[in-house]
Structure formats: structure tokens, C-alpha cells
Write a structure and sequence with these properties.
alpha+beta; 4-stranded antiparallel beta sheet; 4-stranded mixed beta sheet; 5 helices
Length: 197
């Protein structure tokens, strides 16, 4: 396939360097569905913990017997755990994911160097300092679109990240090309809003 593609003229050629912000956006996009589901679960659990903690605290404080301070402490811990759980995916998780993405980006030369993609009708070729790889369209399982990114998810659990700024000169034509591939190879395609942070 590589020799065959070398003789074919590429329909589109993209030269890009992924910046740190794009890589962070990609990471948030990849966990977006999981975070939505977890947020709901944790919110319900947090409310239950807070309600039980408050009831336990009230019973402890207003019981006729002299309340043991350990029970009050346990009630307070339960309330604090509920509050922490409810705030985790809103404040703590995004900060941790951002730090993890920054660390991965800093340690990955592929992300920091220029990569060239040549798109053909039946495959695309990825050329960088570390790799020269040809991918048949049959290997692409899903395509995710946002206003800033296009992500091709491959069978090998690898992703190709294409910032929309890389295709701004031929955005419409490239998207039509992707649509052809999606229909021809029965690829799952999803348009998503950029992950809210």
C-alpha cells in the first residue's frame, strides 16, 4: 500500500504540529462521556452522604443522652465527603487531567514535532521523524468532530488528531472527503461540542 500510495497523488496534504492546548482539548474530549456519567452518579451519592451526615449530626446533637464527639466527627466527615464528591468532577478532575495531559505532551516528541498526513481515497499516510505509517480506511472505527478538532480513532486504540486550523484552507472539501469515507467504510461519526471545563 505504501508503494502504491507513493505513486498516487494525495487528495489532501496536511502538515501540522499539535500544540499543548490542542492536546489538552483532545484529552478532555476523550473522557467527556465518562465524566458526564460519573458526575451524575457522584452527585446522587454526594447528596445522599450529605443528607445522612446532617441527619446523623442532628440526632447526635439533640439526643437526650450526652453525645459522643466521635459521632459528631463521623457526621462531619460524611458531610465533607459528600461535598468533595459533588465538586470533584467540576474542579478537581479537570485540574488533574490538565496536569496529566501537560506531562504526556512534554514527554512525547511525536506531539511536539511536525507531522505530515497525505490522504488518499483508500488510505492515509502519516509521516514524522519517528514514523512513516500507512493506514487503510478500514482501520478507522470512529471519527469525532468538534469545532476545533477532528479525531480519527483506529482499531489499534490509537488516535490521529487533526486540529481544524490545519485544514482551514480546504475545510469544506476535506469534510466532504471524510463524509465519503464514513459512508463507504461504515465508520461511526459523532459531532460533539468541545468539552466544557
Amino acid at each position: 500500500m505504501a508503494e502504491e500510495n507513493a505513486q498516487q497523488k494525495a487528495l489532501f496534504t496536511i502538515r501540522q504540529r499539535i500544540d499543548e492546548q490542542t492536546y489538552e482539548d483532545f484529552n478532555f474530549l476523550m473522557v467527556e462521556d465518562m465524566v458526564k456519567n460519573k458526575k451524575r452518579q457522584v452527585k446522587v451519592l454526594g447528596i445522599i452522604e450529605i443528607v445522612i451526615g446532617v441527619l446523623f449530626l442532628l440526632v447526635t446533637l439533640f439526643s437526650q443522652e450526652r453525645a459522643n464527639w466521635v459521632y459528631s466527627l463521623l457526621a462531619a466527615v460524611l458531610i465533607l465527603l459528600g461535598i468533595y464528591g459533588m465538586l470533584f468532577y467540576r474542579y478537581v478532575f479537570p485540574s488533574r487531567l490538565k496536569k496529566a495531559a501537560q506531562k504526556q505532551y512534554a514527554g512525547n516528541p511525536y506531539l511536539q514535532n511536525e507531522v505530515e498526513f497525505r490522504f488518499f481515497e483508500d488510505a492515509f499516510r502519516e509521516i514524522s521523524a519517528e514514523t512513516d505509517n500507512t493506514v487503510d480506511w478500514e482501520e478507522v472505527q470512529r471519527i469525532l468532530y468538534t469545532d476545533h478538532l477532528i479525531v480519527l480513532m483506529l482499531e489499534s486504540r490509537r488516535c490521529v488528531i487533526i486540529p481544524r486550523t490545519s485544514i482551514r484552507n480546504f475545510d469544506t472539501e476535506f469534510l466532504k472527503y471524510l463524509e465519503r469515507q464514513i459512508h463507504h467504510h461504515e465508520i461511526t461519526a459523532l459531532h460533539k461540542e468541545s468539552a466544557a471545563r
